[in-house]
């Protein structure tokens, strides 16, 4: 859990913290016949997401969600708060029973709101008996208890009992790890909790995970307060004597939390993984000795976005039982793994029994293998490469003891979205220095628009884009803001005969500027916000969504910005400051919400903007024009030029930029839309799970912009 962050800054997407404890295996004994892995996790900070989910892997790297990534156990039935987090799953020492523990908590009530944990026991991994242990109610002298977090379980062969350990915070003291033994039926704790470990640096000690290896107990944990990261303490005994190895084990300079360790089946190697929570991703590492770790991120995949959980090794029989109970034909078909498939845009209709697989430009439809996930006890026919060029192909899927089902599978080239993943607010630039196009989007997919970094992508044809990596990271590169990295814009200028690139961006509802000698960076921030307060006379709105434009008539450059109002100011010659005396409000009409875009064509200055809220399916683009880059803006009739297309499942089309092919009267509009097909079902979350598209933009004989039809197919590769 992101214990030190508010809900608004907690990153969704993101990826989970998970660990492995083998029970008997943890004590150095082999579990014969284990061939797969069960991953128990939760998914986020909304109450509906705070529940236990399961996933399966056969190699420890590639995981498939069970039950369509929905809960396998009702939080309402097992908890006192209505939510559970951080599930830890363990195979019993007798090989016949399974144990889980979880934090009894709903994060919306506050990070210091919970006092209890949940204990669960099963003999088949399907049906679970549960009980609640409220630490504050059960034990005396707990009046100043603040929170009870992330319990885990390990079998103690010395006393032949299961030891539960977790972190607690009392008053102003830092979090410390405590332990107690469970009773015989795993429904309660015995005795009084004892302190197991505290951080010698006097920082918080959370997310403990004990792994037994080569006669030693290795306690991995996250420390906070005096340096943040993953450390390890080692002891010869389970319940005492842990000595801190005072170095960080994460293989990144980014902020991390929630270390999880598990041993690979049939191997002496371990996996250490951790949540790079400010980047919305997980990092996997592999180790032979639990001391040195090698990054193996490229080998890992999941068809879900988990949070803190654990992995347990399971047998083939147990895997098949779980698949028969919670896996489905639709999950198999949605798990098509061919890298040409746009994974976020697969459309499955369980009523019509059809699957639509959008694929990248250049895919050979005459000989295409979707590479459907084929777990144990799953049969799929036909196999291998199939001809999709003449229409749909019928596939039959059989899972365990389930009835076989047949679906019609369609495959078609979709160039929209143009980027893999969630991105929004796209700015596009053509670089004369490199003869390439560059996209500068908002990094999306984070709850509450909480992303903290910007990337860029390059292309020679507007269809095939190369990820050039992070160009501005608020946490590393910007001193004046650390949150809400939104809506950038960029421009190429010649300074003293050399090309320079000025990148204007939103951070913490202010506008900043960074400078580079190359369109892909590295960019250096100016050190302070360029726009930090509302213009005179403006009482509402936000200082966001910059746009930069150079007037081809005069060579002067202008900055536009605003949410709820449109402001403009002339940039000084240095391009990193404005002439404050030139600030002018030029809001076109009441339809203006945000996302100004300005360009020049045939003597006219065109102004485009977005109306409605980015969370609305009706988010769209309107335009006007002027004889001046600073207005007044003339509004034309029928000026809504980009809007939803429900017949194609396209919604929320807005916040655009425009690109002209050099030397040609050929124009394209670059915009974001809701994720297709899930966005329209996501409510407000659709507004931060968006994707970037490009379509043709044309003009009539009077210079009016024709209505743009948002498409799935997108555009053909351009030729300059």
UniProtKB/TrEMBL annotation:
InterPro entries: Glyco_hydro_43, Glyco_hydro_beta-prop_sf, Glycosyl_Hydrlase_43_Enz
Gene Ontology molecular function: any one: hydrolase activity, hydrolyzing O-glycosyl compounds
Signal peptide: 1-26
Record key words, sorted: Carbohydrate metabolism, Glycosidase, Hydrolase, Polysaccharide degradation, Signal, Xylan degradation
Superkingdom, natural source: Bacteria
Gene3D superfamilies: 2.60.40.2340, Glycosyl hydrolase domain, family 43 (2.115.10.20)
GO biological process: xylan catabolic process
Family according to the record: Belongs to the glycosyl hydrolase 43 family.
Descriptive protein name: Glycosyl hydrolase family 43
Species: Pedobacter psychrotolerans
């Amino acid at each position: 859990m992101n214990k030190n962050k508010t809900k608004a800054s907690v990153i969704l997407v993101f990826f989970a913290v998970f660990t492995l404890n083998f029970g008997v295996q943890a004590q150095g004994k082999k579990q014969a016949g284990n061939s797969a892995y069960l991953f128990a996790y939760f998914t986020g900070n909304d109450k509906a997401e705070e529940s236990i989910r399961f996933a399966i892997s056969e190699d420890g790297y590639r995981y498939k969600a069970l039950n369509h990534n929905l809960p396998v156990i009702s939080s309402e039935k097992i908890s006192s708060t209505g939510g559970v987090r951080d599930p830890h799953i363990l195979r019993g020492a007798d090989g016949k029973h399974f144990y889980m523990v979880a934090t009894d908590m709903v994060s919306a009530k506050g990070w210091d709101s919970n006092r209890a944990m949940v204990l669960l026991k099963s003999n088949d991994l399907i049906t679970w008996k549960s009980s609640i242990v409220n630490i504050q109610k059960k034990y005396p002298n707990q009046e100043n208890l603040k929170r009870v977090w992330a319990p885990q379980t390990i079998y103690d062969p010395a006393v032949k009992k299961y030891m539960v350990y977790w972190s607690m915070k009392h008053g102003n003291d830092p979090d410390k790890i405590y332990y107690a033994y469970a009773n015989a039926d795993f429904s309660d704790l015995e005795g009084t909790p004892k302190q197991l470990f505290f951080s010698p640096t006097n920082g918080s000690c959370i997310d403990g995970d004990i792994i037994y290896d080569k006669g030693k107990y290795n306690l991995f944990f996250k420390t906070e307060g005096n340096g943040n990261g993953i450390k390890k303490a080692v002891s010869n005994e389970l319940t005492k004597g842990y000595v801190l190895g005072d170095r960080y084990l994460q293989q990144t300079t980014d902020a991390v939390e929630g270390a999880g360790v598990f041993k690979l089946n049939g191997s002496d190697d371990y996996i250490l993984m951790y949540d790079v929570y400010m980047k919305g991703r997980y990092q996997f590492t592999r180790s032979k000795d639990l001391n040195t770790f090698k990054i193996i991120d490229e080998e890992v995949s999941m068809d879900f976005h988990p949070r803190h959980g654990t992995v347990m090794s399971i047998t083939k029989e147990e895997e098949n039982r779980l698949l028969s109970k919670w896996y489905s034909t639709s999950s198999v078909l949605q798990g098509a793994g061919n890298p040409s498939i746009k994974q976020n845009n697969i459309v499955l209709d369980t009523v019509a029994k059809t699957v639509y697989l959008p694929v990248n430009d250049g895919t050979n439809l005459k000989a295409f293998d979707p590479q459907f996930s084929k777990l144990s006890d799953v049969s799929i026919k036909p196999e291998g490469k199939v001809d999709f060029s003449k229409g749909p192909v019928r596939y039959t899927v059989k899972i365990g003891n389930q009835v076989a089902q047949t679906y019609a599978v369609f495959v078609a080239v979709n160039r929209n979205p143009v980027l893999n993943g969630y991105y929004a607010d796209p700015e596009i630039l053509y670089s004369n220095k490199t003869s390439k196009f560059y996209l500068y989007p908002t990094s999306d997919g984070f709850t509450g628009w909480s992303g903290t970094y910007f990337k860029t992508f390059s292309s020679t044809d507007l269809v095939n884009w190369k990820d050039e990596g992070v160009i501005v990271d608020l946490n590393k590169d910007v001193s004046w803001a650390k949150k809400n990295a939104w809506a950038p814009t960029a421009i190429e200028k010649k300074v003293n005969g050399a090309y320079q690139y000025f990148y204007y961006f939103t951070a913490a509802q202010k506008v900043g500027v960074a400078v580079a000698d190359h369109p892909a960076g590295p960019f250096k921030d100016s050190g302070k916000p360029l726009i930090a307060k509302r213009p005179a006379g403006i009482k509402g709105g936000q200082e966001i969504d910059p746009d930069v434009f150079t007037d081809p008539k005069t060579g002067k450059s202008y900055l536009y910005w605003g949410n709820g109002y449109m402001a403009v100011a002339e940039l000084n010659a240095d391009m990193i400051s404005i002439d404050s005396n030139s600030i002018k409000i030029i809001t076109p009409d009441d339809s203006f919400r945000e996302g100004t875009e300005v360009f020049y064509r045939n003597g006219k200055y065109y102004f485009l903007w977005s109306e409605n809220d980015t969370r609305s399916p009706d988010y769209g683009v309107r335009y006007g024009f002027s004889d001046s880059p600073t207005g007044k803006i003339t509004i034309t009739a029928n000026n809504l030029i980009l809007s939803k297309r429900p017949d194609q499942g396209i919604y929320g089309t807005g916040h655009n930029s425009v690109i002209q092919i050099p030397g040609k009267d050929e124009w394209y509009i670059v915009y974001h839309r809701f994720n297709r097909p899930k966005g329209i079902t996501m409510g407000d979350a659709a507004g931060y799970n968006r994707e970037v598209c490009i379509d043709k933009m044309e003009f009539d004989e009077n210079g009016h912009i024709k209505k743009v039809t948002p498409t799935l197919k997108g555009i053909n590769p351009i030729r300059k």
